[in-house]
Write a structure and sequence with these properties.
2 domains; nine-stranded mixed beta sheet; 16 strands; globular; Rossmann fold; single chain
């Protein structure tokens, strides 16, 4: 896996679902992607502050929280398993885990000097629709480490873990890349350290003929933000990294926007800081910014004045350059359309709590497209929660790893109808985005939040 090819730097351990309540069911839509209810019986081996009985686990909040953290750490391995080569070979597709689920403890017992906690899992996942082949329910195997604290060491041979990616070989990266059926992996073939649970996946309803709230988009002055994150490790600190694959994506976007009657009114290269604040707030840096303007006559018979901001920047959460975070916070506060193409950082790069203070309630309606590595598990729940629900927000995510070779095409397919003032359904937009992948196959792209939209075309 090369960073200039795939979006998704592995920097942060994903904390899935801890602290979240189980939200009400919302329909979603993907042209290829389908959401399904995922249920299975799991178990985990625990040492340390282990509960002695089921009653203690249920009644001692401190112990319960500690066990839940352990189970969350175990379950995050499903993310890697769903994208593993062995899963793809067995089911002819990949999948992605939702970030919200319930756990019900069912048993606590001692086994060979260890405490084993059994539980029922109930959550959601997104699959390729072909996996169901006109069925509503399927059975799939779920592979998990019985003890997530010890599983990594069991795969090490001659100081190298043979059960994961050869480049991303650290223990922190393991959950995202592990595959026990890789050649040379000591855990192959039913190793006792690997739990195989049979899960049931039951299809959930999808939306039909839903639309963005075009009446809220197509009037007055509106802002669209396009963020393109650098992909390579070696980013130049004081000037634009033109050899980075992201620079070509930026160039493609800048050549395309004028074809939509949007004229470039500003360009700043080799800058850092609060670009939108004007003079005195910037210094020399490695970012590239352009702004475009244009008045568009829409299909509603209205006019919208688009201000399109395009930023090429270091979007890593560990970056000392605050340029991206400053403008991204501004986009969440004032942007009707926000598009992000870059590394997800396992959710860390776009985590709301690392952004400067902003007012997420300022905009009555927004659409955000996260075209980063496996953005489906990371951004829906926290963003909808911060926005107070999906009434004023639609979110488009990718379930799988996305490629820089399709990034511009994906953005084109998503943005064209909005910037041209047209009114296609989300079902059409998702189809166009899917088609823009070309030979790369599906990223399981989908939209959430559209099921409570009320705008419909006049009949």
């Amino acid at each position: 896996m090369k960073r200039n090819v795939m979006f998704g730097i592995v920097q942060f351990l994903l904390i899935i679902a801890s602290g979240f309540t189980f939200a009400a069911e919302n329909k979603f839509y993907g042209d290829v992607a389908r959401e399904a209810r995922l249920t299975f019986q799991g178990e985990i081996e625990i040492k340390g502050k282990s509960p002695a009985t089921l009653e203690e686990l249920k009644n001692n909040s401190r112990v319960s929280r500690w066990v839940r953290e352990k189970i969350d750490g175990q379950l995050q391995h499903i993310i890697g398993y769903f994208q593993a080569e062995s899963f793809t070979e067995q089911y002819k597709s990949k999948a992605s885990l939702d970030d919200n689920y319930r756990i019900k403890y069912t048993e606590v017992k001692k086994s060979s000097g260890k405490i084993v906690v059994s539980y029922q899992y109930r959550g959601k996942a997104v699959f390729d629709k072909k996996l169901f082949a006109r069925r509503d329910r399927i059975k799939i195997d779920i592979k998990l480490p019985r003890n997530p604290d010890t599983i990594y060491a069991l795969g090490v041979v001659n100081d190298e873990n043979r059960c994961t990616d050869e480049h991303y070989n650290s223990e922190g990266d393991f959950f995202y890349f592990w595959d026990v059926e890789l050649p040379g992996c000591p855990l192959r073939g039913g190793h006792p350290a690997v739990l195989v649970a049979q899960a049931e996946a039951e299809l959930l309803p999808v939306t039909d003929r839903t639309y963005p709230e075009y009446d809220k988009l197509y009037s007055g002055k509106k802002h669209a933000f396009i963020f393109i994150g650098y992909l390579d490790d070696e980013i130049l600190p004081n000037r634009v990294s033109r050899r980075d694959a992201a620079y070509q994506i930026f160039k493609d976007v800048s050549q395309w926007l004028p074809t939509l009657n949007l004229r470039k009114v500003k360009e700043l290269a080799n800058v850092s800081g609060d670009i939108l604040a004007g003079r005195g707030e910037t210094s020399r840096g490695g970012n590239l910014y352009q702004r475009y303007e244009g008045v568009v006559e829409t299909s509603l018979g209205t006019e919208v004045e688009w201000n399109v901001h395009v930023l090429l920047a270091d979007t890593s959460s560990s970056s000392e350059d605050e340029t991206f975070r400053i403008m991204y916070a501004r986009a969440l506060e004032t942007g009707s359309l926000v598009v992000y193409d870059g590394h997800s950082g396992l959710g860390g790069n776009l985590a709301l709590d690392i952004m400067p203070e902003f007012d997420f309630d300022k905009m009555d309606y927004q659409i955000i497209y996260f075209n980063g590595c496996s953005s489906y598990p990371y951004f829906k729940t926290p963003y909808f929660k911060a926005k107070g629900g999906s009434k004023k927000l639609d979110i488009v995510t990718s379930g799988l790893t996305t490629f820089d070779t399709t990034a511009f095409g994906n953005m084109q397919a998503f943005l064209y109808s909005f910037l041209a003032g047209k009114t296609p359904s989300y079902q059409k937009i998702m189809k166009w985005v899917e088609e823009s992948n070309g030979g790369e196959g599906t990223y399981l792209t989908s939209v959430n939040g559209d099921d409570d939209n009320v705008w419909l075309p006049a009949r």
